[in-house]
Design brief:
The chain is of the alpha+beta class. The strands form 8 sheets. Strands 4-5-6-7-8-9-10-11 form an 8-stranded parallel barrel, surrounded by 5 helices. Strands 30-29-32-27-14-33-28-31 form an 8-stranded antiparallel sheet. It starts with a helix and ends with a strand. The longest helix has 18 residues. It is globular.
């Protein structure tokens, strides 16, 4: 029965393997009534006299970003209450298109994607909402919130532009999204006081037709009473390119914590109509993001609070980015680049952000306390209403050591014959071209070996390729590991000589480590994006297989072909013996732990290499302790259950020798990068 349970878990995790409109008018919409000062009894939120006004009274936004899609839905209320206790009156959140439409035409508004329930919860807790509907959001989220299937379109779409094909798809998306939020606008009795279009567009482009179109489309669905706003960096160049002058769209700013805010707010006025420019930083940075291979980002609490007070002391408004960061569950983490697109920097699974409310919801920390003191001093000046009490930290439990067993090599789960989703082509295809948005793709070909071995090069691979070779006749032998080729340290590798009766098999497993979410290289297709060269000669005739593992908020699916392959692997005695061998071949490991009391925990992966983890069939994200800094993955209590809990790991390289992980009660960001070469390949370094 244990073997059957294990197989069932693997079945649940492995998803089924996947087998012009004219340019709309760019003319500006008529001047709206959004800024009128209304002192009647009707619920109104507007701008006048360089102030926000709520129901006819001056109002100051003291807000914070808290993203519903980075928090388990059962913890939404917990996190919102902690934000309210901090003194916040407004929640700002993005809406990621790719979470809600993961494949074209398949719409998801449940679970982590239940936006309407989140907004209604904000209303229940008397929190206002600033909704950032995109279609681009950035946010250290895969492809800046755009769905990956946009990258499969031919000819290629120009994202964030007035490309008619792109705008047509945006229109279809917003025609679904915006009617859902319309009943929740403040003028309709809901919590939404402002809606942001695009995000920091002035740092990317200068396409006013695109911005005008978004505004017109938003007005079509949301009407004239809602404040539409843009956010751009507080410099003249970015504001010139990213704003629409006039009184139809409010231009907000963000800037580096430590900059003097008031000269920036003075500049902001130039990009708003007279009297329509309340000073606000819509992204006041409480911390910062962290990439794999870097030290964990940390900012001084007192320093940050001092600059927040500089805004609040003169009646400015601010939105903390982040108030609570949360977690990049599944495969949704984003990435950045440096000077070129090869300088690839994927984000951690944790999105703690060094925010005052930590990833696990903890508020017993210096930053929360300092911000609490600063905000309460300001709030006391204009409100006698008692503030919410501060909730205690949620209990965490260390459930201890969890013994794992290797249950299957990844390649034992895959047959390259008669697979309905197998794609055959002369050259390798991108992941998106074969319908694969996240996870992994396997490329296979054949070549004639030479006695001295061969040199393999892939000029463009996104993002990380593990290379294996084998003899077709040696089906009982494990593939031979050759090396790794990465996007950030691309170099030719040596394929050792294998004496086979015929050609050698070549297998290349490519991992999508998260699409770029910011900058000029955002059109970030994944997989092998160039020819593959063997001794400087292109290699042709490829078989490509999508290996789609379950992403967060997806229902487990079973592929009968994969199921049969797994069952065969479990039944073979020879396969059982091979499972005890240690090598660099990707493999699944599983274990169980029993609990009587369900609480938050962390899983420590110290000693492991790199991979993906699933707890009770939920993808809790990537681990990479060999590069760091993140050692432990946060597991919120709603993922666990009383009694038996299952851990499944896909380890891409070599496991911890004793095949154990540990459930611990604390985060850990002290795993350090291995500098230089490691097992014959370069790794990310800080």
């Amino acid at each position: 029965m244990a073997g059957n349970r294990t197989a069932a878990v693997i079945f649940a995790i492995v998803i089924a393997f996947a087998a012009f409109a004219p340019l709309p008018s760019s003319s500006s919409h008529r001047s709206s009534s959004q800024f009128r000062l209304d002192k009647g009894g009707e619920e109104k939120f507007g701008i006048a006299d360089d102030m926000f006004w709520k129901d006819g009274e001056p109002f100051r936004i003291i807000g914070g970003d808290l993203h519903y899609f980075r928090v388990h839905p059962e913890y939404w209320e917990d996190r919102l209450l902690r934000a309210k206790a901090l003194g916040l009156n407004t929640i700002q959140t993005y809406v990621p298109w790719n979470l809600h439409e993961p494949s074209q035409g398949r719409l998801v508004f449940e679970g982590f994607a239940d936006l309407v329930s989140f907004l209604k919860l904000c209303k229940k807790l008397d929190l206002l909402v600033m909704l950032r509907v995109g279609p681009y959001i950035c946010g250290e989220w895969d492809l800046g919130g755009f769905p990956g299937w946009l990258l499969a379109k031919e000819p290629p779409i120009r994202l964030r532009s007035s490309d008619p094909v792109f705008l047509n798809l945006v229109e279809k998306w917003w025609s679904i999204l915006l009617p859902k939020v319309f009943p929740l606008l403040y003028s309709n009795g809901g919590p939404i006081i402002m809606v942001q279009v695009e995000n920091e567009f002035g740092s990317y482009g200068d396409d006013k037709a695109y911005l005008h179109y978004l505004v017109k489309l938003a007005r079509t669905h949301l009407g004239d009473d809602i404040i539409l706003y843009t956010t751009d960096g507080g410099a003249r160049d970015t504001l010139e390119k990213g704003t629409l002058k006039g009184d139809d769209v409010f231009s907000a700013v963000d800037f580096t914590t430590g900059d003097d805010p008031w000269p920036i707010f003075k500049l902001q006025k130039e990009f708003n109509a007279p009297g329509k420019s309340p000073p606000i930083s819509t992204e006041f940075y409480t911390g910062w993001l962290t990439h794999w291979g870097e030290n964990i980002a940390s900012t001084d609490a007192s320093f940050t609070a001092t600059y927040l007070e500089k805004i609040l002391s003169k009646n400015g408004s601010a939105v903390l980015y982040m108030a609570h960061g949360g977690t990049n569950l599944g495969f949704y983490n984003g990435a950045n680049t440096g000077d070129n697109e090869s300088d690839f920097k994927p984000d951690l699974t944790s999105y703690d952000y060094d925010a005052p409310i930590r990833e696990s919801g903890d508020v017993d920390n210096a930053k929360y306390k300092v911000f609490l003191s600063a905000l309460r001093r300001v709030i006391a000046k204009y409100s006698a209403k008692p503030l919410a009490s501060i909730p205690p930290d949620n209990e965490r439990i260390a459930y201890g050591r969890i013994k794992l067993d290797k249950v299957s090599f990844l390649y034992d789960m895959i047959g390259m014959k008669d697979l309905v989703d197998l794609v055959e082509s002369e050259n390798p295809s991108s992941m998106e071209a074969i319908g694969q948005m996240f996870g992994f793709v396997l490329y296979a070909s054949e070549y004639t070996p030479t006695s001295n071995g061969s040199m393999l090069s892939i000029p463009k691979v996104h993002d990380r390729a593990q290379v294996f070779i084998s003899c077709p006749e040696d089906s009982d032998k494990r593939p031979t590991y050759a090396d790794v080729i990465t996007r950030w340290s691309n170099r030719p590798i040596h394929l050792p000589y294998l004496k086979c009766e015929s050609n050698n098999n070549l297998f290349i497993l490519v991992e999508n480590m998260g699409r770029l979410n910011y900058g000029p290289y955002m059109f970030d297709r994944k997989g092998i994006l160039s020819s593959v060269y063997l001794d400087s000669t292109p290699l042709y005739e490829w078989k490509t297989l999508p290996l789609s593992l379950q992403n967060v908020n997806e229902s487990p699916k079973i592929n009968p072909i994969i199921s049969n392959t797994i069952k065969t692997a479990f039944l073979k005695g020879s396969a059982r013996k091979k499972l005890t061998e240690l090598n660099f071949e990707p493999a699944f490991y599983t274990g169980h732990f029993n609990i009587d009391k369900v609480r938050d925990t962390y899983i420590s992966f110290r000693g492991w290499s790199k991979g993906i983890a699933f707890i009770n069939e939920i993808n809790v994200g990537r681990f990479w302790p060999s590069v760091g800094p993140q050692c432990n993955l946060y597991v919120p209590a709603p993922i666990l259950r009383e009694g038996n809990n299952t851990v499944v790991i896909l380890e891409l390289e070599s496991p911890k020798p004793d095949l154990t992980v540990s459930s611990v009660d604390h985060p850990d960001f002290t795993c350090t990068s291995k500098l230089g070469k490691s097992r014959g390949r370069l790794v990310l370094t800080s």
